[in-house]
Amino acid sequence: MISLERVSKTYGTGPRAVQALSDIDLQVPKGTIHGVIGLSGAGKSTLIRCVNLLERPTTGRVIVDGAELTAMSASDLRQARHQCGMIFQHFNLLTNRTVFDNVALPLELMRESRRTIRERVMPLLEMTGLTDKRHQYPAQLSGGQKQRVAIARALASRPKVLLCDEATSALDPQTTTSILALLQEINQQLGLTILLITHEMEVVKSICHRVGLISGGRLVEEADVGDFFTAP
Ligand code: ADP
Ligand code: ADP
Fold it and tell me: Residue ranges of the ABC transporter domain (predicted)?
């Protein structure tokens, strides 16, 4: 579903250039949850942002659901990005919009009708346990509720892939557990492919099928989660 082929990313040029990713090869099969773990500065955030081309790789190919994003025109890319929902550590909600209107945002951008928007948003609010909160604003919500809004918003365009950028790093352990359970439900019930990056072992252990370790911009190890954590 997601395929990165020899992806490299350099920020800047000349003596101040930073090689953030080097020759990343990554395959994430349809319907799986794949984790990439690494220390701060290892290149995790750059890696996940290269999947939907929020960052453009300097070299290499990115293919999502059979379409090569790195070969697309800007307008095709805008369309293709609807295949990739994304959630972030700090939620990135719009503070002046209600819960409903935050979730509706991608559909408004796709110029869906008010009726379609309502038909799509209400079930997502139900699934994420936010129906009663739909009139509230982000400032009135807990961290976990905000992340639920962000998840519902990420799903609004019916993506095939969900990208999670340190999605639980700002949450307490109990809230983390409930958000991870929701991601697992989304994987199992909607069949979404999930790629997540994290610096937290527990996240990877609890929901990932397969794990990669990134260090100095290179994927240095990859294994099924059971093998990855087996003591030598
Ligand atoms: P991680 O998410 O694992 O902390 P990042 O992908 O954020 O790692 O960063 C990888 C490397 O790229 C680091 O050395 C970081 O300083 C550098 N980097 C990240 N973003 C930029 C940027 N916009 N401009 C220059 N260097 C960057
Ligand atoms: P209530 O009857 O309590 O106002 P509704 O279920 O009618 O609740 O609406 C819930 C929220 O959804 C409201 O904030 C409303 O503004 C919003 N809403 C309903 N339909 C749409 C739509 N088509 N587009 C955008 N927002 C909508």
Answer: 2-232
Helix axes 114-127, 143-155, angle to 10 degrees: 130
Q: Is 223 in the pocket of ligand 1 (CB under 6 A)?
A: no
- The pLDDT tens digits for 149-202 are 999 999 999 999 999 999 999 999 999 999 999 999 999 999 999 999 999 999
* CA 118–ligand 2 middle distance (angstroms): 7
Which residues sit opposite 194 in a β-bridge? 33, 162
Distance 101 CA to ligand 2 centre (A): 9
Which tens digits make up the pLDDT trace of 195-228?
999 999 999 999 999 999 999 999 999 999 988 8
CA distance 168 to 20: 23
Q: How far apart are CA 66 and CA 231, in angstroms?
A: 37
Tell whether ligand 2 has an atom less than 6 A from the beta carbon of residue 121.
Answer: no
Q: Is the CB of 45 under 6 A from ligand 1?
A: yes
ipTM (interface predicted TM): 0.71
Q: Is residue 154 in contact with ligand 2, taking CB distance under 6 Å? A: no
Share of the chain above pLDDT 90, in %: 95
To the question of pTM greater than 0.90 for the whole model, the response is no
